Amino acid sequence: MNTAIDDELWSAVGDSTRRRMLDLLLTDGEGTATTLSRQLPITRQAVAKHLGVLQRVGMVQVTNSGRERIFEVSQAQLARAVAQLSSVGAAWDARLHRIKGIAEAIQRDQER
Predict the structure, then answer these.
(1) pLDDT tens across 16-53, in order?
(2) Does some domain include residue 2?
(3) Own/partner pairs for 10-18, CB < 8 Å, 24+ apart?
């Protein structure tokens, strides 16, 4: 694999609630803990904790606007995550291709 895998990033986005929050932020462009909590079946406090996790791994950026904290997805970190997924996908494709070759060789040997 060419791209190093960030375990903290994948642990953070491995949670289905946080993935849903990222989807909402990408769709809406930005959001606050309050606006997100209106769209999710969890409390505002739980949303704030999830946003803190996403912020810690760099998946969201926060801007203060008066008393509100406005969150948006970090395009750079999202691109990095996509690159990591592509790298993992390519590695697994290569592994599966090798396994297929081994299985075909075994089948040829058994047919002889």
Answers:
(1) 999 999 999 999 999 999 999 999 999 999 999 999 99
(2) no
(3) 10/84, 12/53, 12/54, 12/56, 12/57, 12/59, 13/54, 13/57, 13/59, 13/81, 15/50, 15/53, 17/42, 17/46, 17/50, 18/50, 18/53, 18/54
Domain holding 34, by residue range, is 7-111
Give the count of domains, the chain.
1
Q: Which two tokens stand for residue 10?
A: 């994948």
Q: Output DSSP code: residue 4.
A: P
**Whole-prediction pTM value?**
0.78
In a domain, 1, yes or no: no
Is 57 part of a structural domain of the chain? yes
Question: What is the separation of C-alpha 24 from the centre of its chain, rounded to a whole number of angstroms?
Answer: 13
**Do 5 and 88 contact (CB within 8 A), yes or no?**
yes
Q: What is the pLDDT of residues 45-78, one digit of tens each?
A: 999 999 999 999 999 999 999 999 999 999 999 9
